[in-house]
Write a structure and sequence with these properties.
Blueprint: H1 6-43, H2 50-56, E1 65-70, E2 74-80, H3 85-95, E3 98-103, E4 106-110, E5 115-123, E6 127-133, H4 137-140
Antiparallel strand pairs: 1-2, 2-6, 3-4, 4-5, 5-6
Length: 141
């Protein structure tokens, strides 16, 4: 492959690099779309994964659980995989209850008058998401 004119040769070289770049970007986009399509049940297990990703980055030994979101009826926390004794203990102390029973990922707390249920589920294999009843003065008394 020889070029008689240096300017023409450089133009052909730039054109070829541009085509390779466009093809490379197209392949990356197609692979990204395919991965999201194949793993969408895992990625979107609980809807929008972004709040869970941001919350999971804040987890540490000093911060074993992080709040992801809160509604009128529940507060959602994320922890590293497994049982988070600190979260369960915090809930028990704030409600004045004790853990009465555990069924898999369901924890039942009570004080003899009222019961609260905390539900946990595995999230992305490395985390656990906890649905904890939102505490207000009305539902504690």
């Amino acid at each position: 492959y020889s070029c008689g004119d240096l300017e023409v040769c450089l133009m052909k070289s730039r054109s070829l690099r541009g085509k390779i770049l466009v093809i490379g970007l197209a392949v990356c986009c197609i692979l990204g779309i395919a991965l999201v399509y194949l793993y969408s049940p895992i990625i979107f297990q609980r809807g929008n994964p972004v709040p869970y990703l941001f919350a999971s980055t804040k987890l540490s030994a000093e911060t074993p659980y992080v709040q992801v979101k809160q509604t009128d009826s529940e507060t959602v926390y994320i922890t590293k995989s497994g049982v988070c004794d600190e979260l369960l203990q915090s809930f028990a102390e704030s409600t004045g209850t004790e853990l009465q029973e555990r069924f898999g990922g369901t924890y039942i707390f009570g004080d003899g008058k009222k019961q609260w249920i905390i539900v946990s589920e595995i999230y992305w294999k490395n985390f656990t998401v906890w649905e904890v009843p939102t505490l207000t003065n009305a539902n504690i008394e």
